[in-house]
Amino acid sequence: MERIPSEILGNILEYLVLLNYSPWHFTLINRLWRTCALETPTLWAKISLYSSRYGDIKYNGNFEGDLIELWKTHAGTRAISKGNVTICCDGAQLRDALQRAKSVPVSFEVHADKISYDEPWDISDEYFRDLRIESLSLIMAPVQQMYGAPFYLLWQIVSQSSVSTMERLVFPAQFSLPSVFSSRLDAFAYKLNKLELGPHQIDVLTYYDAQWKERIEHLDIWPENYTIPPPNSTVGAWANLVSLYFGAGSWPHCTSSALEFHRLETLKINGNFYHLDVLYLPALQTPDTGWLNALNVPALRQVTIQLQNASSAEPVLIAPSPIETLILDVTNPKKFTKDSLRTMSSLKYVCVEKWGGASSWEQQLLAMFFQDSDESCPQLEWVEFIKARRTKTRSPRI
């Protein structure tokens, strides 16, 4: 192993990082492997900022079940790895990691819930000026306010580093994006195309005209484990969205016109539709599944529909769309009927994860898809029942 060229070793270690493995185990093989690892910038491309007080790291060497000693700083403190992520718990570790990352785009996690506001990180702006950001995630406690050390670290990352390579941005529900951050994203974050938000964070995007939000193609709004009354917000048309995901409990108040997603290809609605009681749009006739009927999605290719305990009697009637893949999780068969299929003439694949019908519900579904002479879905090729028998068919006769 001592004879393996360092270039090949570097490629091996970089490949392990891409596979999300921890390459640091291999630094224990011999001195050559360790030296090569420390000099391979890609191994420092994922950095997570924690508190030195978190988890008694200095004393018992335990970090959430996964700890490997990587190197020692000039101050003699240890640096930590969790998988392929480098954990930095003080300024000395962060300075060392940033110097080793060099010009490789870095994915940053700032655990503001673990960093005390009065912690002295002692790192100057110059260490961030040659840094390129690929993604930035902010993790906060439910009722935490952002100030002190966590805010200053985030400020240094956004204001001093290059955001021209940033592709992904993650904010929790309670963090208000400062206008100076948004201005910098407007001016330089041309590659930013994925945004992940807490359910009550949507309104932040409406405080000002942000050009960067027009570049977003993938929007994820995920649920929270705590309850905060959602603010009134205006969600305008996200004309460039390609995929949209709503998590359970994520339904915000809205006061905009009908949502129009002209490039949307994937729509996933996860959770109980009861939450739609807090979603209001002027174009809707009902506070329940009617909102889905009002969507204009001319490019939609795949849709996941989960209807559980929906309150209104109106079935889902999606506007005409070239939907090819349909995933169903329906407890009330009256919510998805033959009429729901009439605008899905391009449908090819159907996956039924759950259907709350009679004992012969598979036969009822097949009849709904194929029995009528008008054949609402003439291109249908595959019907799959996840929790029952699986049926592949092109033109069954029932």
TrEMBL record:
Residues 1-47 form the F-box domain. PROSITE patterns: FBOX (PS50181). It comes from the Eukaryota. InterPro entries: F-box_dom. This is F-box domain-containing protein. It comes from Serendipita indica (strain DSM 11827) (Root endophyte fungus).
